Structures are given as C-alpha cells and as structure tokens.
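haha ok so turns out i had the wrong file open the whole time. this is the CORRECT one, sorry everyone. sequence first:
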Amino acid sequence: METHANIENKTIVRPPISSVGVIGWIRGNLLSSPGNTILTLVILSLLWFSIIPFLKWAFLDACWHPDANCREASGACWSVITSNYKIILFGFYPQHILWRPITAIALLVTLLFISRNRKYWNPYLGYTWLISLVVMGFLLRGGGFGLESVEIGKWGGLILTLLLSVFGLTAAYPLGILLALGRQSNMPVIKTFSVFYIELIRGVPLISLLFMSSVVFPLFLPEGVSISGILRAQVAIIMFTAAYIAEVVRGGLQGMNRGQFEAAESIGLNYPQTMRLIILPQALKIVIPPSVSILISAFKDTSLVVIIGLYDLLKTTQSTLSEPKWMGFSAEAYIFIALIYFVCCFFMSNYSRQLEKELDTGL
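then structure:
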C-alpha cells in the first residue's frame, strides 16, 4: 500500500488546454472534422457580411432625434418611432391624458408578472384581478371622478392589441375546455353541437369571421341597435381560438388512461368531480406545449383586425407611414412593432416552459 507521502509526491497530470474549456468545446463541436470546419467558416463569413452592416445601419449611421432629416442619413431612420410613438402605441387616444392608458398597461403587466409565480395563486389574486380590470376599464373609459370620457373607438395601438389578445385568450381557453368536454359527452345534443361548432369554425379562416362580425352581423341587428366593432372582433377571436383549443384539450383527454376514471369511480367521485380534480389537471398539463402554440398564434393573429379598419398596433403604424415625411422608412417602423410582438410571444413561451418544469412529476 502506498503511503500518504508517496501519493503527495506523484505528479498530477492535467488534460491539455486544447481539449477542455472554450477551446476544447470549439474543437469538439465546430472544428471536429473538415466538413464541420468548412461549414463553420462559411457561417462565420455570412454573419460577418450581414450582421456588421446591419449594426452599422441600425446604430452607427442611424437617426434618432425626432427633428432629424432622415433623407440625408445613410442609416436607419428611428426618428419615425421617436416622433410618432404616441400615435403608434396609443392610436387616437387624447394625448394630454396618456397617463391613463400608460397606468392601465403598467397595472396589467404587473399582474401578469405576479401571476407567473404559482405561490400567489389563491382567491386573493383572483379578487385582485377583478378589481384591477374594473380600474383599468375605468381609467381607459373615464366618465367619472373628474376623468374625461374617451370613446372606445379612440382606443388603438398597443391598448387595442392587448385588449383583444389578453381578454380574448383568457376567455377562449375555458370555452375551449367546455367544447372539448362537450365533444366527449355521451349526450347526443351536446356532442352534436360541439362537433358542429368546432368543425365549422376550424373550417374557415379568421379573416372570414372578422368580416362576418364587421359586415354581416350588423345587418341582423334591430334598427337603432349597434355593437362596438371592437367587441364584435373580440367575440370573433374568442370563437376562433376556442375551437382550436378544444381539439388540443380533446387530445389530452383521449390520452388519459381508463384506469384514472375507474379509480375516481371507486372512491365515489361523480363526473364533475372526476373531471375537475383528476382528469383535467393531468390532461391540461400534457397539452401545455400545443396550447401555448395556439395562444401565441392567436396573439399574432389579432393583427388581422387591421383588415376591418380597427386601429391596432399595425394599423396605427401604417397610418403613420402614410405621411409623406415618413414614406420610405417602413422597415424601421415594422422592426419596432416586430420587437413588441416578439417580447410578448417570448414571455408566453418562457412562462409555458417554466410551468411545465413546475408541474413535471417525472411520470
């Protein structure tokens, strides 16, 4: 047996620097073979000749000041954003009271961030949401406590986009669950209605529903009765999204083992209790990824309301670009709204991954 002194006198052989750390990772993943080396060099060349000019165009040679003359600049004209951000983000909402929509949006974003943490999921959070929704609606609409009244038709830009997406997706998800349960029902009337609704809505594009809500539906209203175009578009988005959610949830229900139902029956649970306590929690956990994909797609589809004349984020941007001063600078404006959509979609996607990890039981 070797003594402790002999062990200490032995020389410790370390791996070569070229095989560990960053250098080792580069050699093992990017330069592991002649083919990989060539491919790495080609990609680096493409990045060099594309990213560097883009950074120069977007930052170094760009115009940022609202009063800058973009026609003389060789880079991007971000002045189209700095000069018109109020119209792009808030539409025709009166600019002297923009603190009201800004406060409402800040309150909504704060609640969304708080709701990400499951430890806050309790009845108090639900009451907070209800009270906050009333406060947000009152801030936007006004008409009391000295607040100037603002017509719903003047709500536009980011306000309208968040209104259609947040409330539309929130209402569409439980409706989709009910339709999925209805399609699985043994009652012929409920099952037939659910199947007919789902297949009918999924068989037509969202644009057609928006046109129906904007053009055809008002024809059936009694004389003198009118419904806001925003509300009609909201209902169309809810109906469309719910049909797709229903099919995703139905897939989760069909993936449940029959033994789960039998176990619920053995302990005396009725159908509503079985679905609420055992089946739906497991089924909804299974379908988190496809459900979030549909919700993200529906969030982006809210931009289609531009076709029926609603001034959402895309429409307000287009109205800005129609001014002669800003013609030719559409790339900068669309990059700006693309970043807004990306941040919102990334938030939804990131939250879904977090929720999957928290609900993962390893089964």
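The chain has 15 helices and no strands.
again sry for the mixup
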